[in-house]
Amino acid sequence: MKQFLLVFLGGGFGSVLRFMIGKLLNSPKDGIPYGTFAANIIGSLLIGIILGIAAKNNSLTSNQTLFLATGFCGGFTTFSTFAYENHVFLKSGDFTSFAIYTVASFAIGFLAVFFGMYLVK
Length: 121
What we know:
mainly alpha
């Protein structure tokens, strides 16, 4: 039961922070989802750092890792919003934004995870 609570609390904090970043950075005028992009890249970097630290010396407990990686990063990042925003790009015929957003999100997201793990080596 404690593990469920840790994931619940971490996810809540992550979701609220993602909501705030979206409100601050997403552009209703031009429709570019900068907030979602930023949250997903920052979350990728953070999970790389968190899991890198956890693996390095067992310096995080399993509960801390569960709260931070599964809970916080899981709530902070959002694949479903990313997928919906891409749907909007495709539906409006904006294939260039779709391609740039998709490729940049995956490429930079993967690089951020690897960089986060590299930072804690």
